[in-house]
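// run 5 | inverse folding | seed 20
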């Protein structure tokens, strides 16, 4: 099929930069085209069906999603995110998947129809990377098959979770089981019966001298006695049903010791392996959300029923400039995301942490502005349920703090850059030494500059 797909002039590839197109293999070209056709013809037209069904059963996955998931699975469109170095992967690189994820992001729940939504993407990659064959059979394979959904549980209400060494929920590990006590925030809601497992990070060895070895990650079935959902947390006024964001209380929750992933004390190794891809997936989808907002703004610009002073909204100079700024911002942020994905492919998640952090910091901030400008073009109507814009904006704002606030990522980037300072000082000293040599050659008196080596 891929050999017959024309890339140039094809809307599925219209926003993909030339350097990325040159790297796309036939399998990727085929999948990008399939995802584009899927979102355009199956998902976007069903948005209002989704809303109507959700209104009838708030914490049940809408029937339209269930039907689309079956259809997508039959077409080989499930789990496209899993990188090609995993045996369970459908074969795409991070860069190739980025092109698919942007298209999925055009509708908030679009990725869910393809089993490529958060937190499933990060959780599946975690289980694929770190679980034993027995654990994979129990949890990974059902998740990849869409039999149930999962949650990742790390954030706590009374700890500075941006410093994950402070995660404090207690885990007592015995010969046969792990006993858990404490509170957590943001794991998906148990109200939805499809949500059946939590991947939980807790403190199992608080007295360990190395703070990076104090924590353990394990799987907790959602129906385990003692695990209680206190409430759902609204995000900017939205309940985000049917998945939600729960607040949980663990009271003597007991799970078998074999539910531990990788081993006691290895939670940070697992978290870093998970968070790189998870962070970048959010940004990939957000590019698609911003494109949708941009397109809605263009639609509004030439709405014949909205002609202030007899002119289309798009004929005013201020809006022409606004559209130009939105277009350039989205294109620039796409390059940031694609660079991060390519860096992960070429150098690995750890080596790519700067590019990942760059995406996590810059993309949500910039695209929040794009979406806000689209809302301005719609005026008061842009703040209502008449368009997807308020939910798109809220998702972008949420992504700014998902997997850590901006300041945490900036601090990490800044610390890494400070490590390069001495090398630049040495270079500056060489420049000065060479300058003094040139002064002698040309019979000039060297000048002294305070603060310059």
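// decoded
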């Amino acid at each position: 099929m891929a050999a017959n797909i024309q890339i140039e002039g094809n809307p599925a590839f219209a926003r993909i930069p030339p350097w990325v197109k040159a790297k796309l293999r036939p399998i990727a070209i085929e999948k990008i085209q399939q995802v584009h056709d899927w979102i355009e013809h199956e998902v976007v037209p069903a948005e209002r069906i989704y809303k109507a069904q959700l209104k009838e059963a708030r914490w049940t996955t809408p029937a339209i999603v269930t039907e689309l998931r079956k259809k997508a699975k039959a077409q080989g469109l499930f789990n496209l995110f899993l990188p090609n170095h995993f045996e369970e992967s459908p074969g795409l690189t991070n860069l190739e998947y980025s092109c698919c994820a942007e298209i999925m992001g055009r509708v908030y729940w679009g990725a869910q129809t393809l089993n490529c939504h958060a937190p499933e993407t990060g959780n599946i990659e975690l289980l694929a990377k770190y679980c034993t064959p027995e654990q994979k059979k129990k949890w990974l394979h059902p998740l990849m098959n869409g039999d149930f959904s999962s949650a990742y549980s790390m954030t706590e209400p009374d700890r500075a979770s941006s410093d994950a060494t402070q995660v404090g929920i207690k885990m007592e590990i015995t010969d046969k089981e792990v006993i858990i006590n404490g509170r957590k925030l943001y794991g998906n809601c148990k109200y939805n019966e499809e949500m059946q497992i939590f991947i939980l990070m807790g403190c199992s060895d608080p007295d360990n001298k190395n703070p990076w070895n104090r924590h353990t990650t394990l799987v907790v079935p959602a129906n385990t006695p003692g695990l209680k959902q206190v409430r759902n947390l609204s995000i900017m006024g939205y309940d985000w049903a049917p998945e939600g964001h729960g607040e949980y209380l663990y009271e003597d929750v007991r799970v078998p010791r074999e539910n531990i992933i990788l081993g006691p004390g290895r939670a940070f190794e697992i978290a870093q392996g998970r968070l790189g891809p998870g962070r970048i997936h959010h940004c990939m989808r957000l590019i698609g959300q911003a494109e949708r907002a941009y397109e809605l703004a263009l639609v509004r610009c030439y709405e014949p029923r909205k002609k202030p002073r007899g002119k289309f909204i798009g004929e005013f100079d201020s809006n022409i400039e606004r559209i130009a700024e939105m277009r350039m911002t989205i294109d620039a942020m796409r390059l940031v995301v694609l660079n991060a994905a390519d860096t992960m492919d070429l150098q690995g998640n750890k080596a790519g942490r700067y590019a990942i952090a760059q995406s996590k910091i810059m993309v949500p901030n910039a695209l929040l502005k794009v979406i806000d400008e689209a809302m301005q073009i719609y005026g008061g109507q842009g703040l209502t349920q008449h368009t997807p814009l308020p939910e798109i904006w809220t998702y972008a704002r949420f992504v700014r703090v998902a997997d850590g606030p901006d300041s945490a990522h900036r601090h990490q980037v800044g610390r890494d850059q400070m490590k390069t300072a001495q090398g630049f000082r040495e270079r500056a000293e060489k420049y000065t030494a060479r300058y003094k040599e040139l002064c002698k050659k040309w019979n000039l008196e060297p000048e002294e500059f305070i603060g310059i080596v």
